[in-house]
Amino acid sequence: MIRRDFWSVAFAVAWRVLHNVFTTPSLLLPGLIFPLFFFTAFAGGLSRVESIPGFDFPNGYTAFQFVFVLLQSAAFGGVFAGFGIARDFERGFAKRLLVSAPERTGIILGYGVAALLRWAMIAIVLTVVALAAGMQVGGSGVDLFGLYALGVIFNQIGLLWACGVAMRFRSVQAGPLMQTPVFMALFLAPVYVPLDLLQGWIHSVAKVNPLTFFLESGRGFIEGRPTQVGAAFGAAAVMLVVFALWARTGLARAERAG
């Protein structure tokens, strides 16, 4: 009975979020347009970077940047779902849901499922655009599965982080707190050039940034020469556990707040 209640709550929340997103252009279009803008700006505007001595990514700069934009879209797909959670609290829906839901942990899963399905649509569009732009893919189907698996995990990490913030503050004014740390962590990784070409303090920070493992592994997958796979998925597993606890304690705080 408990399991049935858990899944019914998760399904109801996911359906409501997806229905709102796909019927409201102001919620749907930004999450789709921004990744395409970043991909066009980075892969097109910075394409001459691949001629820099030491840039040895054989699949070209389009594929190099595609991995970053794909993972960025995954993370912010989760974060944008956190904005929706905060908006639900402001409108009173989330409070009513906390009172009526028999299994409240299903609420987090519902938002997570909605964030994942929303990002899946964005990932498909982004991939089609990248292939149409001439992106070279050296990896096999297994390699590409690894790349998109990283995206799925990163999407849920972003969602769990934003969910914990939203349930603690219960206001869209907490949006910058959801977004800024993710933005900073992403751009303190080797975004524009490989790690070996970074210098100074940015190289030192990027070297210990866990998101560097995501990028390096993702680029290895698309190249067809997987690298740092264990480090990437190990870091992902740790982050999932940590942020799942963060989201769960946020839910408990929201419950106490009524």
Outline the structure in words:
By secondary structure, the chain is mostly helical. It is 79% helix and 0% strand. It has ten helices and no strands. Helix 3 runs antiparallel to helix 5, helix 6 packs antiparallel against helix 7 and helix 6 runs antiparallel to helix 9. The two termini are 25 Å apart. The model has no long low-confidence stretch (mean pLDDT 91).
Topology:
Blueprint: H1 2-23, H2 25-45, H3 60-90, H4 93-100, H5 105-132, H6 141-169, H7 175-187, H8 200-208, H9 210-223, H10 229-257
Q: In terms of per-residue confidence, which ranges show pLDDT below 50 for 5 or more consecutive residues?
A: none
What is the N-to-C succession of helices and strands?
HHHHHHHHHH
SS element count, helices: 10
Helix content: over 70%
Radius of gyration: 19 Å
Category by helix and strand content: mainly alpha
Give the overall shape, derived from the CA principal axes: elongated
Number of strands: 0
Gap between N and C termini: 25 Å
The profile of the biggest β sheet is: none
What percentage of amino acids are in beta strands?
under 5%
Average of pLDDT: 91
